[in-house]
TrEMBL record:
<dbReference type="Pfam" id="PF03381">
    <property type="entry name" value="CDC50"/>
</dbReference>
<protein>
    <submittedName>
        <fullName>Lem3/Cdc50</fullName>
    </submittedName>
</protein>
<dbReference type="GO" id="GO:0045332">
    <property type="term" value="P:phospholipid translocation"/>
</dbReference>
<keyword id="KW-0812">Transmembrane</keyword>
<comment type="similarity">
    <text>Belongs to the CDC50/LEM3 family.</text>
</comment>
<dbReference type="GO" id="GO:0005794">
    <property type="term" value="C:Golgi apparatus"/>
</dbReference>
<feature type="region of interest" description="Disordered">
    <location>
        <begin position="1"/>
        <end position="25"/>
    </location>
</feature>
<keyword id="KW-0472">Membrane</keyword>
<feature type="transmembrane region" description="Helical">
    <location>
        <begin position="360"/>
        <end position="381"/>
    </location>
</feature>
<dbReference type="InterPro" id="IPR005045">
    <property type="entry name" value="CDC50/LEM3_fam"/>
</dbReference>
<dbReference type="GO" id="GO:0005886">
    <property type="term" value="C:plasma membrane"/>
</dbReference>
<feature type="transmembrane region" description="Helical">
    <location>
        <begin position="46"/>
        <end position="67"/>
    </location>
</feature>
<keyword id="KW-1133">Transmembrane helix</keyword>
<dbReference type="GO" id="GO:0005783">
    <property type="term" value="C:endoplasmic reticulum"/>
</dbReference>
<feature type="compositionally biased region" description="Basic and acidic residues">
    <location>
        <begin position="9"/>
        <end position="21"/>
    </location>
</feature>
Amino acid sequence: MGLFKRRKQDSDSDKSKEKGGWRRPANTAFKQQRLKAWQPILTPKTVLPTLFIIGFIFAPIGGLLIWGSGLVTEMTFDYTDCENLTPTTNDTLTFADMPANRYSYRLRSGNDGVTIQPPRYAFLDNSANSSFTDVLNQRQCIVEFHVPMDLSNSVFFYYKLTNFFQNHRRYVKSLDSDQLKGKFVSPSSLDNSDCDPLGSIGGVAVYPCGLIANSLFNDTFYTPMLQNAQDSPEPQPYVFTDKGIAWSGEAKKYVTTPIGNGGYQNASQIIPPPNWMKRFPNNYTEDNIPDLRSDEHFQNWMRTAGLPTFTKLYGRNDNDVMRAGIYRVVIGLNFPVQSYKGTKSIVISTVSWIGGKNPFLGWAYVAASALFVLIAILGTARHLIKPRRLGDMSLLSWNR
């Protein structure tokens, strides 16, 4: 009978184990939640000094941030209403004073008493002039502004938009990363992607596709010219470069040309976005396809803003001092904002170790410091006037 006698398996020997024991966590301090812990007992002797210490630490931090922001000079000029002015010509420029609520000077600390000449602007309309072939600059705004003091380098040139919601969910997603990197993406694939409804036009792929690229800010800015230079009778330019205005890693997201190297075969397979037609009236050719890898204005625009009011860097000058005087900048008017009740402005600013002009963070630290100290003072007064014995059992609700 030994032939039919089975050998006991491990499962038979486990019957003595408690049912479900294989799911029991290991008997360690971590898995059995027996780790050592420390819970502070909040008493007046510990809480009140802590509040005072935090308040005394926040106050100098806030003051330092406010001082850093005070080192910055920022000038903002809103030219939204410029196109509503009576048109003039180059021969007879007629300037109008910019309303006081359309510009602001936030000067470096210690220069608040400097005399400032109000800015002016004029509207130049060459759209009816058949000999004027530059379609991007047929309608121009000439802004004349005063720089009351020398601005040391670096000086930055921004454009500012309000009421423009780049943070809308469909807008943020409206691009195709593969196409921007130079890969071939068929028109049908673009129509079924996040680029819809600007994936293709007439069966031809839109490059670059999507709402973000189509709404690219396309006002143009000429070099500001110093009108009253002391060492020259001619206006002197203050040149801003468009290199180094985007994050260094942004260029990796784009390709120099989408033609070849696994991309589209020729320029006839792609078409500009609808709002780019003024720039490319005859569509793309082999010679005029935009180099998005080096176009830092485009890269900044594609990096969407989180709030409806934002500024984007357009140019910078890291080498020259912007001398005090009267400057003129010519702006080509192409980007509409009045239809959605927005505004557009130019911003000229310096920077400090804290960045741009933004005293809010410093005042927030000061306000927090004042709040902590106030609470500490009130708590100290309460503790001195009507102290409470620690661990008084008579204060428990069931003993009252």
